[in-house]
Amino acid sequence: MSVDESTVRRVAKLARIAVEDHEVAKLKGELDAILAFVEELSELDVDGVEPMTGVTPVSIRLREDAVTDGENAERVLQNAPAREGDFFVVPKVVE
Fold it and tell me: In this model, does residue 75 exceed pLDDT 90?
């Protein structure tokens, strides 16, 4: 697949990238190369290949999802600019 100059300009506009006239030919070549690589990838047989989240296998350590108060309100609030009891006092932002 090959792109033309109007497509390059349209993609640049959609991406909100300022492209000078002398840059269009270079970008056209780069987009053509990217699309050729994507076409090459689409020819691969990936049946039976499990999706991956990264290149190295990683197991995520999970913890119990429990709501707590932090069990140390004094330490948490010691740098608060203002507090009321065990709570932060913040300026009102919604009228």
Answer: no
